[in-house]
Amino acid sequence: MNKTYIGYLLLFIFLMFFLFADQLDIKNRIDIPSRLLDMNTIFFSIFLEAIPFVLLGVFISALIQTFVKENTLNKFIPSNPVLALFPAVVIGAIFPICECAIVPIVRRLITKGMPLHVGFVILVSAPILNPIVFLSTFYAFQTDLSIAYARMGLAFVISLIIGAIIYQRFGNSNQLKNEGSHMTHIHDHGHSNKLKETLYHASDEFFDMGKFLLIGALVASGIQTFMSREFLLDLGSGMLAGPAVMMGLAFFLSLCSEADAFVASTFKGMFSSSSLLAFLVYGPMIDLKNTILMLAYFKAAFVLRFILIVTTTVFTVIVLYQYFLV
C-alpha cells in the first residue's frame, strides 16, 4: 500500500478515536493507569494546539515552493559578501519555510550561483524568522511574550554570525556533492497544474513533518508525566547545563518550527527562559532530520563542521544573553 494512503488511514483512525472515544467507553472497559491518562491529555493538548499553525505553515510554504523562483531571490543579494548577509536574513524572515523544506531549496539556490554563506544564512533563519513561527510562539507563550520577541532577536543575530563564520572558513567554495549523487527535489510530482502541485507539496510536507510533531508531542508528554519534577528543576537550573540539555532535546525531537513552541511551553517552570530559548533557536537551525537531508546534498565534512558552528554559536550567544540580559 502506498505510504501516503497509510498516512491518511492513520490520520482517519486518530480522528475517529478523538471524536468518538467517549462512546467507546474505553476507560471503563480497560483498566488504564491514571498517569497514562494524564499523558494522553498533555499529548492531545500539545498536538491540537500546534496543528493549525502547522497546516498554515505548510500551505504557505507550498505556495512559495510552487510560485516563487530561485533566481528571483538572487536579484536581492548584493555582491559584497558582508552586505549580502542582511538581505539573506530578510529573505528568511519573509518566507515561512520549515527546516526540512528549506534544505533542497538552499541547495538549488547554491547551484544557481548563490554564495554558500548566503544560502546557509537563509537555511538557518527561514525556519525561525517568519510570521507563522512568531505567531505560534506568541500564542504558545502568552503569559511571557518576551520569549517570542527574544527568539526572533536572538535568531537574527545568530544567523548573521553563522553566515560570517561560514564565509570566513569556506568562502564560496563548492561544498555540494556531485550532481549525480544527490536526490531530486523531494516533493517533485511532475504536475504542471499549479493548484495541484501546491496541494501535493502541502500534503507531502504535512505528512513529512507531522510524524515528527507526533513524536515530539509524545516524548514531551511522557517527560512531563513520568519524569520527576525535582529532577527536571535540578537539570534545568544550571547556567550551562540547562541550555545544553534543551539543545540536545531539540536536535533529537526534530520538531517543525511552526509547532515547537507548544512543546517548549510545556517545560516552562522546569527550565529557565534561556534554556527554552536555546531549544527554540537551535532546533529549527539544526536537528536530526535536516542533518540527514543535508548529508544527501552536501559533503559530509562540511555538514559536520556546519553543525559544530551552529552548536557553538547558539550555545555561546544564549549563555551571554542569560548572563547579561536576563
TrEMBL record:
Q: Which UniProt keywords apply?
A: Cell membrane, Membrane, Transmembrane, Transmembrane helix
Domain of life according to the entry: Bacteria
Organism ancestry: Bacteria, Bacillati, Bacillota, Bacilli, Bacillales
| Pfam short name (any one) | ArsP_1
Q: Which family does it belong to?
A: Belongs to the UPF0718 family.
TM region(s), chain numbering: 6-21, 42-64, 84-106, 118-141, 147-167, 231-255, 261-282, 302-324
Compartments reported by the entry? Cell membrane
Membrane-protein topology? Multi-pass membrane protein
Name the UniProt record assigns to this protein: Permease
